Amino acid sequence: MTILASSLALGAADYSWRRHAVCRDTDPELFFPVGSTGQALLQLSKAKETCNQCTVRVECLQFAIDTNQDSGVWGGTSEDERRAIRRQMAARNRAASNVG
Questions:
Q1: Euclidean distance between CA atoms 31 and 25, whole angstroms
Q2: Using only C-alpha atoms, what is the Rg of the chain?
Q3: Per-residue pLDDT for 17 more than 70?
């Protein structure tokens, strides 16, 4: 998705779910750990715990996938986990297009 297409999609979407997000009153830094060891892993775990308590986790994850969020924790997933989800979605789309 191009930046323009992404921006247009954002303009038309309903993001009222954000008002219900558990993280809305949490320091955003929690969701953007730096590194992949020690303190960063603890921070990642704490961010995911916060997401696990959230009633709009699915909407948040969908937003992250739809808008190609490639950093931070969104919908209880890390960057690597979202990349894996995108790969799975792409593979399913390829398989579906080859069926016809």
A1: 12
A2: 15
A3: yes
